[in-house]
What we know:
The chain is mainly beta. The protein is built from no helices and 11 strands. Strands 2, 4, 5, 6, 9, 10 and 11 form a 7-stranded mixed β-sheet that branches. A 4-stranded antiparallel β-sheet has the order 1-3-8-7, with no helix packed on it. The radius of gyration is 14 Å and the shape is globular. The protein starts with a strand and ends with a strand.
Amino acid sequence: QVxxxxxxxxxxxxVGSLRLSCxxxxxxxxxxxxxWARQAPGAERELVASIRTxxxxxxxxxxxxRFTIAQExxxxxxxxxxxxxxxxxxxxxxxxxxxxxxxLICTPQLWGQGTQVTVSS
Length: 121
């Protein structure tokens, strides 16, 4: 079973930046790759960024142009650079492994423990 450990969360003022990191154990990922998801209080967990094993990146509309996902395969590291942060970005952020579900859609199915990001106005 893969192990995922996030770091880099914290408190920041709006329009500020944070970089999240995730170290993962050695694992053979599906083509769906890895991603970052977040869960705000009272809300469902949502996938905000993913990177497929071929390097293709996908972003939720809510973060497009502000967040960047990157992977360093030689170091087993996944990153999420978050710029121009908004109060709506406040959430627990999770590193996740994605697999195809029964509808052949890449969905996060394995999770780390999460790191809290709090954005204040």
